[in-house]
Amino acid sequence: MFVIKNKYFLIIENIKDIDLCNIKRTNKFVIILRNNKINQDLNKLKKFRIACKSKSIKFYIANNLKLATLIHADGIYLSSYNKTFKHLNLINNKFAAIGSAHNTKEINLKIKQGCKYVLLSKLFLVEYNKTAPIMGLIKFNYYQPNIFCKLIPLGGIKYNNLNYLKNVNSEGLAIKSEVKKKPAITNRLF
What we know:
With 190 residues, the protein is α/β, with parallel strands linked by helices. It is built from seven helices and eight strands; from the N terminus they run ββαβαβαβαβαββαα. The protein has an eight-stranded parallel β-sheet with strand order 7-6-5-4-3-2-1-8. β4 (75-78), α3 and β5 form a beta-alpha-beta unit. The protein is globular and about 45 Å long. The N and C termini lie close together (10 Å).
């Protein structure tokens, strides 16, 4: 079975984590480079950005406005701990913003920061923290009509629970760990 959504957010830590050849040319994919220690070569990032643009893939940089402007990214990704408003003057002109949140308070902050999409975490149980609270499908669907931005589920989404996402009232989904572990997951998203 395939999961059919309008947007697929793939969160990577390194540009080597994803092979763009696996992604067909569609406007559905958004790649977010989320690496706090950007030690990658600027020229490689620019080439990766050009490759994304040729396949109509949006490319966002996490929490680094300077790097995003240098490589002409499509926008900036604001983590849940990022509470600044420095980027607001660039959002309407050059950039779009995507945010990340865990609760209603953080969702409201991301709306004030101008985020069009908010990745709401944790939908399912995650391997790195088995004691962390999870939201589940019912609670996520409860949030959706009460929020004035587009909520995207994130956290614990794996190859074996993709079919549950048919019951989520969202126009997309976000995947982080499975992109690196199972690169073939992008083939299943079509």
